[in-house]
Amino acid sequence: MKSSTISLPDRQLAGGSTIAVGVSSGRQFGATRRHERLCQIGLRIMGAAFAAMQPLAAFAELSNDSMIGPALRSRPIYDGSQSQAVELVPVIRHFGQPWFIRSTQGVLEAGVRTEFVPGLHAGVQLAYEPGRNVNESEFARSHQIANISSGASVGLQMEWDHALGPAPVTLLARIRQNIDSARGAQADLRLSVGVFHGGPVNAGVFAQTTWANAKSAGAWYGIGAQQSEVTGLTAFQPGSGLLFNSFGLLWSVDLSPKWVVVGGLERRRLSGGAAHSALVERPSNSYISAGVAYRY
User: Scanning 83, 103, 152, 217, which has its CA 20 to 30 A from the CA of 66?
Assistant: First the structure.
């Protein structure tokens, strides 16, 4: 990567403005010189940071390169559970014309999309929706909480890829209706920003907000009267609204032109009515993943 620094002549600041130095006071002269040096150091740091971010202009969720590989992920049994499980998950991303498949935007999804104007895509997707296995959680098992089988959803999405100065930005809006109508629907709004590129290392940050309708929130966090008698937990219906907010870090390290190590860390916090369910042992959970992928 080509390095870049910003240096300024003595007594001159950005924009060509100059500092008049008086001779009547050595103290004032020294203070002015210190101020000059601090300004120059600050400008050099800003210039170096700007130069380091320049190569990120092609991607926000690290890249749009086609890749495939395995990864391990540590995740809660369900959002709100104290128990964690480790599972094998795919690292996959491919954009064709018009088909796509990816696991890099929060869910494993595939579908078709088209570009209406430069940087703005819209399409439809089929997504994998995880379930809840009570055998993985002592709390869920002891309270005889019902399993939720994994399934799929169909929906619509719109994605905007842009750059704010040197920083690449992706904004994704997505609606997902579970194929099982009793599982309801969710909507995601996800913002990703590329923040670092240095040698083989790339990094990005993201934030996501997800809403759920009453069926979806109730399927995961509702406790009906009959279930309350079985589980011993207080009856509760969360209703529709905000489900969770999350933020995280994505990173990759190039091992070679074809092989790359990828990973991520996400912190997710339940919000709205779901956070008050007796099924919630803790409001916040962590997701950690790392894997290796082949770029093609």
Answer: 152
Residues 46 and 66 in one domain: no
Write out pLDDT tens, residues 68-87: 999 999 999 999 999 999 99
Task: Give yes or no for a contact between 15 and 43, defined as CB atoms under 8 angstroms apart.
Answer: no
CA distances from 184 to 61, 151, 155, 181, 211 (A): 28, 12, 12, 5, 11
The token pair that represents 63 in the structure block: 């890249």
- State the greatest distance between any 2 C-alpha atoms of the chain, in Å, as a whole number: 88
Nearest of 162, 221, 160, 134 to residue 186 by alpha carbon:
221
Q: Which domain holds residue 138?
A: 59-295
* pLDDT at res. 223: 96
How would residue 99 be classed by pLDDT, with cut points 50, 70 and 90?
A: very high
Task: Extract the tokens encoding 114.
Answer: 């088209």
| Residue 251 shares a structural domain with residue 223 | yes
| Residue 47 tokens, joined | 């210039």
- Please name the amino acid found at residue 255: L
Q: Which of 25, 54, 83 is the last residue of a domain?
A: 54
Reported as a single tens digit per residue, the pLDDT across 26-49 is: 444 454 455 555 555 544 543 443
- What pLDDT, in 10s, does the model give residues 146-204? 999 999 999 999 999 998 887 889 999 999 999 999 999 999 999 999 999 889 999 99
| pTM: predicted TM-score of the whole model, two decimal places | 0.78
